[in-house]
Amino acid sequence: MAKENYIKLINQKLSEYSHSLLSSDHDPLFLVEQSDLVNICKILKTDSELDYSILIDICAVDYLTYGQADWVTNDATKTGYSRAVEQKIIADDDDEFPDRFAIFYQLLSISNNSRITLKTFTTKSNPPSVPSINKIWNSANWFEREAFDLMGVHFKGHPDLRRILTDYGFIGHPFRKDFPTNGNLEVTYDEDEEKVVYKPVSITTRPSVPRVIRKDND
Amino acid sequence: MTESNLSLNFGPQHPAAHGVLRLIMEMDGEVVKHLDPHIGLLHRGTEKLAEIKPYNHSIGYMDRMDYVSMMCCEHSYVLAIERLLGIEPPKRAQYIRVMFDEITRLLNHLLWLGAHGLDIGAMALFLYCFREREDLLDCYEAVSGARMHATYYRPGGVYRDLPDEMPKYSANRYISEKKVKQLNYNREGSLLDFIEDFTDRFPSLVDEYETLLTDNRIWKQRTVDIGVVSPERAKDLGFSGPMLRGSGVEWDLRRNQPYEVYNEVDFLIPIGLNGDCYDRYLVRVEEMRQSTKIIQQCIKWLRDNPGSVMIEDNKFASPKRDQMKHDMESLIYHFKLFTEGYSVPKGEVYAAIEHPKGEFGVFLMSDGANKPYRMKVRAPSFAHLAAIDEMSKGHMLADVVSIIGTLDIVFGEIDR
């Protein structure tokens, strides 16, 4: 089935729920309301014409620093460019970034040979949350645990929402944009205490290449 | 008297755990009641690290995702960048990529077969499999200079064309001239000659492995009806690759969603019937034969069609060194590419390939900068390992080892 017809079919099947097509350059990307997410996913999976039988991936994105660059590149500055790049300190204030966290779901239909992506923003509360779709696709179990661990997004209704990739007793959510890349703690062997101890991290991350945004490809 | 279940800790430093897998098992006698995998001991935060680097710097990190099928991981990442940029590599580069993807598939399946056999007690097989892996790693080395972590695929093509010469052994006081001549017999020609010689030998070697296992009574006792997954459950659990095909679902990205030149090569897709460990074994062995066929077709095409292996656009590909000596423009392009990299247009893309273990995908998000805003790797082993609890319930402890083997897990990509 051609992509346009397919998008039409999805629009028709999901007509009850608010959704919008964000992009169809690659796989069609739909933005859905998180309150409708479970119902939409149920339709996508169980409808015999759509048949999205496999949930391929769940990816959480933190939009905190989206579009921020280290250097101004659009127009020339009066002072010229500084060689050193300072890492901006970002306050962890949810009110300032109403749509901070988004979740991307990659779905695959084997019978139609088609992929779509669903995007949904989390609630604006702290901690941010979305409903779990673990009951619809069981593969969501670990993907949701991972997103919870690394981004701190809560999946409501998940049967076993524990950390999965980080260390036992880890504090924080490392893939958030306000979590430093070099971390907060380091592990060393203390000769006096004769055991492995946690210490505040002694290294700093210095970007080797500044982040620049250029419009020449748009 | 009350009976209580026994909690058993398996790993993380256990040879049958295939890496740093820690399992907390609830046992009732020798039967597994519940199994809780603890992962993350190899978590390096590759996806976070990719956010502070220009796009090209992360290609080498992708090799370290699934460190037994290195180039396939690169492939998915490079493909995602190319899709966002809207560029396509020259056809010769696409054929080289397909050939090396299949060489990588052999590398992966050989390690899997050897290690899976070793877990279950087929000691000899491990040595045979590693003998053949050595030749394939030499192909990696000849083309990229590194035996494992190649960083060979680049957005817009591959790093360089296939070499006309293979590195040769030389005699020393431990290796005689006569022995060196034997060792170098297939290294006199180009890399393609070397690979062709390998593909001529390889099918009979697979036959040899099969004589050791396929009809072996012990092998069958350890794998038939162990870890059965129905097609419906396989889809629900997010299986892909041989795990899905072993359950009888005909799905292969190389055929169904062809990338590069997979639509021009001829191969068959093996599928299993029962969805047990034995079927998945048969599927993977047949995949090795099919990969050999694909490699042979690629060799034939590559011999007949010399040409460029990198796009001409100097925004993404470095200009030639002699151009830079007398062309100011080339010098600027070179400087910009290696200091700042290239900016990728805004957008999100998910690019998946048929990795030896299943669907390996990279979700890439750009906000228009020279570094990815967010990169997420979809690792097939991650989804497969998540199902280990369901697959092992009710089986004996020894069968858990068979199931870990059949999942074909590698911790580089599970923990990332």
Task: Itemize the secondary structure elements and their pairings.
The complex is a heterodimer of chains A (218) and B (416).
Chain A: H1 3-13, E1 19-23, E2 29-32, H2 37-46, E3 54-62, E4 101-109, E5 114-121, E6 129-131, H3 140-151, E7 154-156, E8 185-190, E9 195-200
Parallel strand pairs in A: 2-5, 6-7
Antiparallel strand pairs in A: 1-2, 3-4, 4-5, 8-9
Chain B: E1 6-10, E2 22-28, E3 31-38, H1 46-50, H2 59-63, H3 70-85, H4 91-120, H5 123-144, E4 153-154, E5 157-158, H6 177-183, H7 191-213, H8 217-223, H9 231-236, H10 242-246, H11 253-256, H12 277-304, H13 321-326, H14 328-339, E6 347-355, E7 358-366, E8 374-378, H15 380-386, H16 388-392, H17 397-407, H18 411-415
Describe this structure in words.
- The complex is a heterodimer of chains A (218) and B (416).
- Chain A has helices at 3-13, 37-46, 140-151; strands at residues 19-23, 29-32, 54-62, 101-109, 114-121, 129-131, 154-156, 185-190, 195-200.
- Chain A is an alpha/beta fold and 218 residues long.
- In chain A, the strands form three sheets. Chain A has a five-stranded mixed β-sheet.
- Chain B starts with 5 loop residues before the first strand and ends with a helix.
- Helix content of chain B is 49%, strand content 11%.
- In chain B, helix 4 packs antiparallel against helix 12 (277-304), helix 5 (123-144) runs antiparallel to helix 7 and helix 7 (191-213) runs antiparallel to helix 12.
- Chain B has a three-stranded antiparallel β-sheet. Chain B has a three-stranded antiparallel β-sheet with strand order 6-7-8. Chain B has a two-stranded antiparallel ribbon with strand order 4-5.
- Chain B is built from 18 helices and eight strands.
- Chain B has 416 residues and is mainly alpha-helical.
- Chains A and B meet through strand 3 and helix 3 of A and helix 1, strand 6, strand 7, strand 8 and helix 15 of B.
